What does this fold into?
Amino acid sequence: QVQLVESGGGLVQAGGSLRLACAVSGRTFSIYKMGWFRQAPGKEREFVASINWNSDTTSYADSVKGRFTISKDNAKTTVHLQMNSLKPEDTAIYYCARRPITTSQYDSWGQGTQVTVSS
It folds into this structure.
């Protein structure tokens, strides 16, 4: 198993920035990709961004392309989500998740961190 702990959420005005962090520990050798997802009130959870664990290949939802950047540190202990030009519609609980080598599904999740963007 891996343990995932998110931090960095908060309240920000539209146009502002936040940097989320996901601390990763445990069986990190099992990771194929790390992803960020979000869930707004009354909506289904949606994909935001992902990064391959052993490369720098990234993927983004169309709604955040050009505004959000996912990255990981060289020690592979933290995954970041830099969020710029935030919009009220970015308000949600943000979760990081692991996709293991053995499956095509994300199967380990953090507890989430709240991001609120005021207009």
The chain has no helices and eleven strands. The CA atoms of residues 64 and 91 lie 12 Å apart. The longest strand covers residues 18-26. The mean pLDDT is 95.
